[in-house]
Design goal:
13 helices; MetI-like fold; mainly alpha; 306 residues; 2 domains
Length: 306
Amino acid sequence: MARYIARRLFYSIFVIFGVSVIVFLTLQLVPGDPAIALVGENASPQVIAQIRTELGLDQPLPVQYWRWLERFLHGSLGKSIRTHRDVITEILDRLPYTMVLALSAVFLSTTLGILMGVFAAINRGRLGDYLTMGFAIVGLSVPGFWIALLMIMFFALYLRLLPVMGAASWQNLIMPAIALSLHSAAQKARVTRASMLEVLGQDYVRTARAKGLSERTTLFRHALKNALIPVTTMIGLQFGHLMGGAVIMEQIFAWPGIGRLALQSVQGRDFPVIQGTVLFAAVIFLLSNLVVDIVYASLDPRIRYS
């Protein structure tokens, strides 16, 4: 396992390098000039040219990328064009908000999804199974932003129970966390149900029941542990996605996370921040997948890596 982790980390270097090249080249195709976005369209050509020189935008693309790569290798992602702050500082300032939102959404979706999936599996073919899977289908079909807007209308405008925007208190976290978790909870419920039904038909489950173990012990100690392997993949992917920034939800609820920072950077043509947020998301995805693989081995000792 140690060799496997070291090999994965080594390959991750090439993945990050490839992501940085793709992001850098893609940004060159984005319409608009960061210098004009910074000083305004009414600025004189001399001022715009001076800003482009200061930002290094007048250099050839290979030179621009090489300078950015040098800074990256020295632990710097450059400075924001809009705020003139270090990109790493900008990301770290938003990181706590994104982490709280991501952990809350993952916890809610995982708890609700697993409970629904197990309930549907042990009530296969009954009314509870149909109702649970019907709810899951609705959760998969309805867009998350529409659920967010309905929650704002009902809980904020009609009942006046929850605040709409910002991150001033824990109450601001309730609606975005729920809106983010419902779609993923529906996915986890369907996967958990299918996985549980497959595991419940295995020989070791029948053996556990034949030995006289209680149904609760058989379900949660023997069956559920192996049924959680595919769900673990979904948890890792969801966490990596949310840590990269839930752009739409953060914009709707004005949540000051990394996703909203990325959107504001795109609107302001702040190329260094865009590159920094995308690279951060790539690193989080790589680490999440690595953690998922390690958890696989702990859930099922039969799994071995060559």
